[in-house]
Amino acid sequence: MDVNDLKGLYAEVNKRMSTALQHLQHEFAGVRTGRASVNILDGVMVDAYGSKMPLNQLAGLSVPEPTLIVAQPFDHSQLGAIEKAIRAAGLGLNPANDGKIVRIPLPALTEERRKELSKLVHKLSEEARNSVRQVRRDANDRLKKILKDHKISEDDEKKGLDEVQRLTDSHIKQIDDLQKKKDGELLGK
Question: Looking at 10-100, which runs of residues are DSSP E strands?
Answer without folding.
Answer: 45-48, 51-54, 59-65, 68-73, 96-97
